[in-house]
């Protein structure tokens, strides 16, 4: 099955506030963009992905991610994350009504195309399925096969909500790069040890992170 992946990205100036103890205000927008670039590039390189739609109103991010090959969908003003995802999924389904759609967080800088394909292939067996994040509290991916509604409920403690809403929780070994979202300094260290993409490698080169070479 071939998927359209919908990636939500809020304005870079407001992004990644929980990284404030690791990255200064002036650096965080660039870091958030680098995470999104590595996420989108890996998704576009995935054999199970037909195309990627990024829901964002940020002009800098929109230009950079369009240059990688993503389609940019304007955000729902003031709607928040789940409204942005529902809006993005509706825009995708307007073009391809019987398409398979998956929402994927924009903060997966270690994402590997082969691991994403493993997750999407598993999700193809169910009307609606999700992958919990590495912390086992949140969600990094929510998928709906043709005919199914995404019904996103991302945000704090989203694993429990997605489970309660009837989405099947995917229990897969060997997909750490799809589960390692980056919200905190510890998350960033974990992603760096998995191996991040080139944009995040460049963006973190100037950060002195304890536990990393040079940090
Ligand atoms: N398009 C869109 N994306 C959003 C919105 N809010 C959050 N996101 C995206 O949803 C994902 C998870 O968002 P959050 O954890 O709330 O925000 P974050 O910037 O990753 O991190 P914090 O600022 O530390 O909460 C990220 O990819 C965000 O960029 C929104 O209102 N619109
Ligand atoms: C939005 C989510 O991720 P986070 O807040 O960890 O970025 C989530 O887990 O639903």
TrEMBL record:
Protein name: Phosphoenolpyruvate guanylyltransferase
GO function term, MF aspect, one: phospholactate guanylyltransferase activity
Pathway: Cofactor biosynthesis; coenzyme F420 biosynthesis
Originating organism: Streptomyces cynarae
Binding-site residues for phosphoenolpyruvate, renumbered to this chain: 139, 155, 158
Family: Belongs to the CofC family.
Keyword Transferase: yes
Top-tier EC class: transferase
Catalytic activity from the UniProt record: phosphoenolpyruvate + GTP + H(+) = enolpyruvoyl-2-diphospho-5'-guanosine + diphosphate
Described purpose of this protein according to its UniProt entry: Guanylyltransferase that catalyzes the activation of phosphoenolpyruvate (PEP) as enolpyruvoyl-2-diphospho-5'-guanosine, via the condensation of PEP with GTP. It is involved in the biosynthesis of coenzyme F420, a hydride carrier cofactor.
Keywords assigned by UniProt, alphabetized: GTP-binding, Nucleotide-binding, Nucleotidyltransferase, Transferase
Family matches, as Pfam families: CofC (PF01983)
InterPro entries (UniProt xref): CofC, Nucleotide-diphossugar_trans
EC code: 2.7.7.105
Stretches assigned to coiled coil: none
Entry annotated with the keyword Disulfide bond: no
